[in-house]
Amino acid sequence: MADNQWRRQPFTGDVYPVALSEVHTVRFFDDWNSYGIQLDESIYLENPSSVSIVENVTGGTVFTEIPRTSSPSAGQFRVDYEAQTYTGTSRIQFNPSDNGTVVLVEYKGLGILNKIENYVGFLVGEDISCNSVTTDEDITANGNLVVGDGSTGSGDVTITGVFTGNTTNPLEIDPNANTIKNLADGVAPSDAATVGQVQAEVDLGTTIQVGATGTHAPAGTPVRIAWLEGTSNSFGSCLVNHSLGSNILGFTAYINSGADVWYEIQSGASSFLKDYSDTYVRIEINAFAFQSKPVRFLVWYKG
Description:
Blueprint: E1 18-25, E2 27-29, E3 34-38, E4 52-55, E5 64-65, E6 76-79, E7 91-94, E8 102-109, E9 123-124, E10 128-130, E11 140-141, E12 145-147, E13 163-164, E14 172-174, E15 179-181, H1 195-202, E16 206-207, E17 222-231, E18 237-241, E19 248-256, E20 262-264, E21 272-276, E22 280-285, E23 294-302
Parallel strand pairs: 5-6, 9-11, 10-12
Antiparallel strand pairs: 1-8, 2-3, 3-7, 4-8, 6-7, 13-14, 14-15, 16-17, 17-23, 18-22, 19-20, 19-23, 21-22
């Protein structure tokens, strides 16, 4: 529990209020069907009242407190104190016309008995936004859990244990093992994707079914592709280095004529040469029209 405890002696009834100030924005609350604010602590009832509310701008409106039995008009408010005949919710009601107004509230607080910090294993059925939640037990939020200032979206979520989703979305975050598991596959173009999903996009998804005599690519060897580009020189030759080593299974090459037409380099033609090694792929064309032209290589290799 927090250091700021409930300031009431339970056996004598003595109270020890402290002066507090908070800034809130008047808004609509579904659960009590009213426009108002929720203070952090239980509100001490004094006569005359020690609650002061003013619009939080220079020269802002000073609000007037009215009895709890009256409904507030514009510029007025009523308070639910921690006292007899009150319910002690620490809520202050305003007129709907004051919705969205940022107010500075000064009051005397009696502690945090009615705050969620002191409840464990509690169930939150609607949106919750707070500066600090401290508990040693479970927190279940059926609504949205907003961390930090909702206007900026700032704030940190610190996980010391393992965060897990539900059976529909079994996402698991384990900061101790530095892992994120069971991340759902991306659907929209902007979604995150798993390593397997990315691999499926770039992998041919095929394997060699019948291996040739030898051990270079036996049956079951996965086949992948690489894409290389270069430019032929003044002799019609284009050599591009690679890092695939001895894994190349074969390649085909295309050269641009200069008119946005790509020609496949056919092996065996007397005017063409195609070869590769563990460090390069190369073509040579003995034709003036294909000098200093773009070349593309489609390489098959074993993964």
